[in-house]
User: Fold this.
Amino acid sequence: MINVIRPLGAALLVLCAGFSASALAHNPMCECKAIDAEQIRCTGGFSDGSGAPGVTLDVIGYDETILVPGKLGADSTLTFKKPGAEFYVLFDAGPGHVVEIDQADIEAP
Assistant:
């Protein structure tokens, strides 16, 4: 009986490892860069190389007000005018797929 359980256990372990690897391959990614002193472009996607057209990308003030509501375009980007108030960018592709980028982490032109 032990010989039957070991191969079955090994197969189950390999199967579970495959599921966990595929679950990890779809992490959200977002990058924002200043185009010039007034405009910022953000690009979103997933670690498996897929884009994120239509995914919500909001620019939010430190007081939690939405300064620029948005969705990524067909090219998975959104360009917006830099707000006058302090802000962060929220890429929200659903539960467990959220990325926040603080204004201090946005690359200068």
In short: The CA atoms of residues 39 and 81 lie 5 Å apart. Residues 2-24 form the longest helix (23 residues). The helical segments are 2-24.
